[in-house]
Amino acid sequence: MAASHLLVCVILWTYYYYISHGGDDHGFVTVPTRSFQPEAVCSDSRVTTLEPSRATVSVPLVHRHGPCASSQDSDDPSFTESLCRSRARANYIRSRASATGGTVTMRDDDTKVTIPAHLGGAVDSLEYVVTVGLGTPAVSQTLLMDTGSDLSWVQCAPCNSTACYPQKDPLFDPAKSSTYALIPCHTDACRNLAADGTGCTSGSDTQCGFAIKYGDGSHTSGVYSDETLTLAPGVTVMDFHFGCARDQDGPNDKYDGLVGLGGAPVSLVSQTSSVYGGAFSYCLPARNSEAGFLVLGGANDMSGFAFTPMSVEMQTFYVVKLTGISVAGKQLDIPPVALATSKGLIIDSGTIITELPTTAYTALRTAFRSAMSAYPLLPPNGDFDTCYNLTGFSNVTVPTVALSFDGGVTMDLDVPNGILSDGCLAFQDAGQDDPGILGNVNQRTFEVLYDVGHGKVGFRAGAC
């Protein structure tokens, strides 16, 4: 969630890779309106086709509030609340990414580990979770998966109800683990936390403290710690560094913590790069009743991927260059300079809605509204100006939307769940000169492979 979780409200080749979800020749797909609705029953049938290699472990990824989650919350955030929090998160990410930063490079390696992941019904700003084991013996922890932040953390005992928020599982208790250890102050591991906020705890020279303050004033703090992380049966990460949090403030769901997948040294990706090569991928399922996966390591078979160049900004954020957009099979007339000055798109698993530079968004909105003119357009609602009342329609004909990236890569977004969210166009205006963000709605059903060592990101359609 970048240090921002739960915030307040072209060089073209002579050919193209097309990553398609099966739109028709006319650029429209007719879908039943029930495909927009959340389902009550979990189905992981598509995940069972994932074949792990000898060096691979698969961890399911599910939606935070969907039926695939191990427990259900009775107080899911409303769609409006979720979008408000997502928008504020995006604003914070852009403010950090606009600053001057370096580039992270990690070595290549052939080994990999795969972890299951899941999606849920009520769309919240940090909605995808994985379940891993922490400690010895391993205790299950349900963690938000976030490419926009680095430090992983869980709530730890002892922590009373005023200091920690209610979560679905018992608090992780370091005293019950034989492998838990505090990370000493004045060590390289502690100094690596400098970007997130750290230091020696008050009155002590032995404990490395961490503190993260988010854009809405909420915070997470505690002691930086060392523990054994179990990704799957028989697959463990020894000496995993994470935050043992004992003081929280601000809005939170009932997750147990967060796993950071950004590019900085403290992230899970960086900590395991000597084994998994610094590469990882995931597939975010389109619906809350389906499961996806999180993979540490490179893909066994690259043939299904189309790759575009990627950079890592501020050590954390993964950035690609948008070169074009099409609606209903027709390329939009967007001046190249309008995309070139946008500083690229940050790929973020925790932001819901994709944010585009003003010129690109305006062209997309105009074309999409024209293609959807048969359906009642609702009055603008905050930042969302293209939402539809689909009540009474048994089927809806949705125009295809495709995003093109540097290197001639084109993503044909999933119809309808990669284009519409709760009846609204899953795009917003980011401002003309600000970095854009590729949100998780557009990423749904694609395996997104981050090959940091080779400076590229790949997309494979229909992966979950």
TrEMBL record:
One MF annotation (Gene Ontology) recorded for this entry: aspartic-type endopeptidase activity
Coiled-coil regions listed in the entry: none
Keywords for the protein's UniProt record, in alphabetical order: Aspartyl protease, Disulfide bond, Hydrolase, Protease, Signal
Active-site residue numbers: D146, D348
A Pfam family this chain is assigned to: TAXi_C
Source domain of life: Eukaryota
Gene3D superfamilies named among the record's database cross-references: Acid Proteases (2.40.70.10)
Signal sequence, renumbered to the chain: 1-22
Residues annotated as domain Peptidase A1: 128-460
BP-aspect Gene Ontology terms: proteolysis
Family in the record: Belongs to the peptidase A1 family.
Protein name: Peptidase A1 domain-containing protein
